[in-house]
Amino acid sequence: MLNLACSFRFKSVTAAAAFSTDSPVHVPCVLTIAGSDSGAGAGIQADIKACAARGVYCCSAITSVTAQNTIGVQGISTLPAAFVEQQINSVLDDIHVDVVKTGMLASPEIIQSVCSRIKQYSIGSLVVDPVMVSTSGHELSGPSILDRLRKALLPLATIVTPNMLEASVLADGKPVNTVLDMREVAAEIHRMGPRYVLVKGGHLKNSHDLVDVLYDGSEWHELRGSRIKTRSTHGTGCTLAASIAAELAKGLDVLPAVMAAKEYVAKALEHSSSIKIGGGAQGPMNHFFQLADWGKLSSRQCRFDPRKLFLYAVTDSGMNKRWDRSTPAAVEQAIQGGATIIQIREKEAETLEFIKIAEASLAIGRKYGVPVLINDRVDVAVACNADGVHLGQTDMPVRLARSILGPGKIIGTSCKTVEQAVKAYEDGADYIGCGGVYPTTTKKKNKTIGLDGLRLLCEASPLPVVAIGGISAANVEEVMNSRPAMLHGVAVVSTLFDQSDVGQATRDLRASMTAALSESTAGKVFS
Ligand SMILES: Nc1ncnc2c1ncn2[C@@H]1O[C@H](COP(=O)(O)OP(=O)(O)O)[C@@H](O)[C@H]1O
Ligand SMILES: Cc1ncc(COP(=O)(O)O)c(N)n1
Ligand SMILES: [Mg+2]
């Protein structure tokens, strides 16, 4: 059966295990099984471009070759099902594919072949874009495929992404004109067996906003965005489905994958409003608007190991001074006690002093293989070649920090809402610090979001999350047992550093975390 195991989830590991860099990097991979568009706005060509732009490798099995441009579809030649099957075998026999995405499947035999291949190989997730008609109004696959599509392919799908017209056809001609219709038809299609149904609203009439409706069998999400004025809408459906596949391949769950994919399509459309390729009514979109950044976006997804967030120690110069020890000495004790990542937070130090403290702490971090991040100050991080930075919402924007620090550094940012989390992901952050979970003396004016706020953010966060704010050995079990899937660890300040013995305080916290892990619910969350 298909499963959506998220690659970010982990079991408790030692810092040393989290740091192994010897194994080759797995590049997330999508296989698209779709038609070729000679004009390259939609089909296989759009899929490969979308995946590449999202930092994902994309293989292809071509089902039909269309003679197509921005004016329309001039011809279609459909390949024999056996040859489609051969292409799929060639890819899957050799290359590890995380997600399969299907587009134009023009014959029932091709659908049958695709189903049999998907069942034979263990594929993580399946995205089905039930392509029927081109944006220019030409039929790409006729009614002969409907029965197989409904009965054989949809039950295997993680998500199916019909536009309003395709949704109506799947539901035997039920009219789909309004958002209410979209909700109803989503439920009807869901009964055919896919885990999620996304009815796309690109063709919604009389509406400023565009609404896509996502349904998982119990809950509807209305994903809204404003309609972008552009003629470059050829291939939006293919691009959206391929981007969802790419995000799933990187390890996101379905809702955050859809949100990230929608954001990407919207940005690509925005960047396409001024381009002109071809003379027809529907031009292609610019998939590579982030080309200058793309290496950065792709590599960070592969490099940062979220297991490092497990026990995240944030220093406080005032506390360490009070207990008469230097920050680097406190850092060493925390690491010896089991901290897996360190953040140097020097709110009062002058720049030179901050750099010296950071350099000494980094030397210790490197000795133990534990990353050391700098709070707030990108300049200090650059000066001492730190492993990365942690930025608040009022510090340097993540996108700017990424452009300064490059792809190899870790960037974390503090978020309280899902919107901030999705933006952090889009801007190139690696993880999110979410809180304050409980009231804390370290940050008096900080709003407390509680366990509910933490859960809400984690449910839709595209990035791994570390919980922060008032967490101690006494309540850490409750935090871990709150079961948000993207939660990867807890960050603490006074629990470690406002103590006489930092090493012991770290060991105590780690023991409570390990105890929570061995209990059923938290064990599942952190695995
Ligand atoms: N002009 C637009 N502005 C913003 N988003 C759009 C626009 N047109 C389509 N989209 C989005 O692109 C995706 C593809 O939608 P749609 O056009 O309905 O699919 P298809 O290309 O399969 O007909 C959806 O997420 C939709 O909301
Ligand atoms: C080969 C091929 N596949 C799919 C589409 C649909 O395009 P859209 O993304 O606009 O729905 C297309 N026009 N051509
Ligand atoms: Mg489409």
UniProtKB/TrEMBL annotation:
Domain Thiamine phosphate synthase/TenI: 311-495
GO CC terms: chloroplast
InterPro entries on file: Aldolase_TIM (IPR013785), HMP/HMP-P_kinase_dom (IPR004399), PM/HMP-P_kinase-1 (IPR013749), Ribokinase-like (IPR029056), ThiamineP_synth_sf (IPR036206), ThiamineP_synth_TenI (IPR022998), TMP_synthase (IPR034291)
GO biological process annotation, one example: thiamine biosynthetic process
Pathway stated in the Swiss-Prot or TrEMBL entry: Cofactor biosynthesis; thiamine diphosphate biosynthesis; thiamine phosphate from 4-amino-2-methyl-5-diphosphomethylpyrimidine and 4-methyl-5-(2-phosphoethyl)-thiazole: step 1/1; Cofactor biosynthesis; thiamine diphosphate biosynthesis; 4-amino-2-methyl-5-diphosphomethylpyrimidine from 5-amino-1-(5-phospho-D-ribosyl)imidazole: step 2/3
Single Gene Ontology MF annotation: hydroxymethylpyrimidine kinase activity
Required cofactor(s): Mg(2+)
Annotated CDD domains: HMPP_kinase, TMP_TenI
Location relative to the cell: Plastid, Chloroplast
Main location: plastid
Ranges for domain Pyridoxamine kinase/Phosphomethylpyrimidine kinase: 37-280
Keyword annotations: ATP-binding, Chloroplast, Kinase, Magnesium, Metal-binding, Multifunctional enzyme, Nucleotide-binding, Plastid, Thiamine biosynthesis, Transferase, Transit peptide
Catalytic activity line of the entry: 4-amino-5-hydroxymethyl-2-methylpyrimidine + ATP = 4-amino-2-methyl-5-(phosphooxymethyl)pyrimidine + ADP + H(+); 2-[(2R,5Z)-2-carboxy-4-methylthiazol-5(2H)-ylidene]ethyl phosphate + 4-amino-2-methyl-5-(diphosphooxymethyl)pyrimidine + 2 H(+) = thiamine phosphate + CO2 + diphosphate; 2-(2-carboxy-4-methylthiazol-5-yl)ethyl phosphate + 4-amino-2-methyl-5-(diphosphooxymethyl)pyrimidine + 2 H(+) = thiamine phosphate + CO2 + diphosphate; 4-methyl-5-(2-phosphooxyethyl)-thiazole + 4-amino-2-methyl-5-(diphosphooxymethyl)pyrimidine + H(+) = thiamine phosphate + diphosphate
Function: Essential for thiamine biosynthesis. Bifunctional enzyme that catalyzes the phosphorylation of hydroxymethylpyrimidine phosphate (HMP-P) to HMP-PP and condenses 4-methyl-5-(beta-hydroxyethyl)thiazole monophosphate (THZ-P) and 2-methyl-4-amino-5-hydroxymethyl pyrimidine pyrophosphate (HMP-PP) to form thiamine monophosphate (TMP).
Family named by the database record: Belongs to the thiamine-phosphate synthase family.
Name assigned to this protein: Uncharacterized protein
Origin species: Selaginella moellendorffii (Spikemoss)
